């Protein structure tokens, strides 16, 4: 009998050989924060050259992930003893922002990787954190995830030796081009209990539908995936005791693991910010080289750069982006302070301190969303009708930021901040706060 089962086929992929020269060019990694941010800028410069064309082609971004690997940016937060950069989160956030200036999709992939690569440090025990850092950093692995909270949880069954995941996720950003994938699920007979695990991606039972064909962030491989009978030993159940088969209260019974949520929310805001800055920089090049002054206004100018409305818009956007960057840097510095103070003393982190940082992060989310959408939509007003040509590619910035700012409604961040400032309430930790 003929089978009616259709196995999803991988789309055409970008060729990693395109960026092969950078493997030999970047033979050593930077040694300080300034060097790492310069490396991120170099990556952005490479990506920006043909970002519009690559986005249209919508190929699976294996070449772009290879470029990130060559650059060393995947190792930026990892310990030096395994070959990492040992930089704090503030530098990671700025690197995400820098790469996103050149290509929002790849800035997003870098951001998600940095979060997932540190998952065991937040929700795991010390042994797990160390073991997974050695695995990820020493092998220069790229990490994706299948943890979309809006879907039903993956269902976990278990026996004495292992836990086993089954289920479906609509969004699996970066997972289809990853070496490792972060899974999260709920135990079938105790659905209030959740377990994270990190497993190899290339194994039977993990299939991707390659159906990410959205208007923006087209090179993030954020389509759906199916998880069938994927197992991990109890020793890899992050934050769980492999003997008692229960969550370790010293790891998961405290506020510290919930830092994972503001940490990734700040990832989002930094690539929003990078995309918006990239839009302004791209528009600036176009305005100064191609935009013409308007000859029918009664106050005719020789050059577009003399037009009052053009100068006013650029100045206003620049001011708001500067303010957004300063706010994002403040929240990043606070991330450094919290992780430095409590990574080795997790039980000392209070709900109030966690909540205060979450509201710095919420503030950044509101400001980068509002400013990013306004800048990326507005750049056409200062470039002119010819700038809407497909070859210019200015539209990609708006499409990218519009796509991800729908991830979770910014209205709820405004409400959250309202309760914080008006009533002194800190947010209850959820999958989105």
What would you say this structure looks like, in words?
With 433 residues, the protein is of the alpha+beta class. The protein folds into three domains: 16-142, Butyryl-Coa Dehydrogenase, subunit A, domain 1; 144-248, Butyryl-CoA Dehydrogenase, subunit A, domain 2; 256-423, Up-down Bundle (Butyryl-CoA Dehydrogenase, subunit A, domain 3), CATH 1.20.140. It contains 14 helices and nine strands. The longest helix is centred in the last third of the chain and has 35 residues, at 308-342. Mean pLDDT is 96; it is low at 1-7.
- Can you tell me the CATH superfamily of the largest domain? Butyryl-CoA Dehydrogenase, subunit A, domain 3
Sheet with the most strands, sense and barrel status: 7 strands, mixed
Q: What gap, in angstroms, lies between the N and C termini?
A: 51 Å
* Residue share in β-strands: 5-15%
Radius of gyration: 22 Å
Record keyword descriptors for this entry.
single chain; 433 residues; alpha+beta; Butyryl-Coa Dehydrogenase, subunit A, domain 1; Butyryl-CoA Dehydrogenase, subunit A, domain 2; Butyryl-CoA Dehydrogenase, subunit A, domain 3; seven-stranded mixed beta sheet; 14 helices; 12% strand; globular; Acyl-CoA dehydrogenase/oxidase; AcylCoA_DH/ox_N; oxidoreductase; flavoprotein; AcylCoA_DH/oxidase_NM_dom_sf
Architecture blueprint of SSEs:
Blueprint: H1 21-25, H2 33-48, H3 51-57, H4 62-71, H5 89-102, H6 104-117, H7 119-123, H8 126-138, E1 143-146, E2 154-158, E3 162-169, E4 180-187, E5 190-200, E6 206-208, E7 225-233, E8 240-241, E9 246-247, H9 249-252, H10 260-289, H11 308-342, H12 351-378, H13 395-404, H14 410-423
Parallel strand pairs: 1-4, 2-4
Antiparallel strand pairs: 2-3, 3-7, 4-5, 6-7, 8-9
Helix pairs in contact: 2-4, 2-5, 5-6, 5-10, 5-11, 6-10, 10-11, 10-12, 10-13, 11-12, 12-13, 12-14
């Amino acid at each position: 009998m003929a089978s009616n089962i259709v196995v999803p086929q991988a789309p055409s992929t970008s060729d990693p050989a395109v960026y092969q020269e950078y493997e030999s060019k970047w033979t050593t990694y930077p040694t300080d924060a300034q060097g790492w941010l310069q490396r991120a800028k170099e990556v952005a410069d490479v990506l920006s050259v043909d970002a519009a064309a690559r986005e249209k082609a919508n190929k699976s971004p294996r070449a772009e992930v290879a470029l990130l690997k060559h650059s060393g940016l995947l190792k930026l937060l990892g310990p030096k003893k395994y070959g990492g950069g040992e930089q704090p989160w503030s530098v990671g956030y700025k690197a995400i922002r820098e790469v996103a200036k050149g290509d929002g999709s790849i800035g997003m992939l870098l951001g998600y990787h940095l979060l997932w690569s540190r998952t065991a440090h937040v929700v795991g025990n010390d042994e797990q954190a160390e073991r997974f850092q050695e695995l990820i950093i020493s092998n220069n692995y790229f990490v994706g995830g299948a943890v979309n909270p809006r879907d039903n949880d993956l269902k976990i069954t278990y026996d004495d030796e292992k836990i086993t995941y089954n289920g479906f996720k609509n969004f699996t950003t970066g997972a289809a081009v990853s070496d490792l994938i972060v899974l999260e699920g709920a135990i079938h007979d105790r659905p209030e209990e959740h377990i994270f695990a990190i497993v190899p991606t290339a194994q039977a039972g993990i299939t991707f539908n390659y159906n990410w064909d959205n208007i923006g962030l087209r090179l993030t491989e954020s389509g759906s995936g199916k998880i069938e009978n994927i197992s991990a030993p109890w020793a890899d159940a992050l934050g769980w005791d492999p003997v008692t088969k229960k969550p370790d209260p010293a790891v998961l019974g405290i506020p510290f693991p919930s830092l994972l949520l503001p940490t990734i929310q700040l990832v989002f805001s930094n690539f929003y910010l990078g995309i918006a800055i990239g839009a302004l920089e791209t528009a600036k090049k176009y305005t100064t080289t191609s935009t013409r002054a308007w000859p029918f206004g009664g106050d005719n100018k020789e050059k577009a750069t003399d037009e009052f409305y053009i100068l006013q818009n650029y100045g206003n956007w620049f001011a708001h982006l500067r303010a957004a960057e300063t706010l994002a840097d403040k929240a990043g510095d606070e991330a450094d302070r919290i992780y430095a103070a409590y990574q080795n003393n997790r039980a000392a982190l209070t709900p109030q301190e966690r909540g205060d940082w979450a509201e710095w992060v919420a503030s950044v989310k509101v400001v980068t969303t509002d400013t990013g959408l306004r800048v990326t939509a507005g750049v056409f007003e200062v470039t002119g009708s010819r700038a809407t040509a497909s070859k210019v590619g200015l539209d990609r910035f708006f499409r990218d930021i519009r796509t991800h700012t729908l991830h979770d409604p910014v209205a709820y961040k405004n409400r959250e901040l309202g309760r914080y400032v008006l009533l002194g309430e800190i947010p209850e930790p959820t999958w989105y706060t």
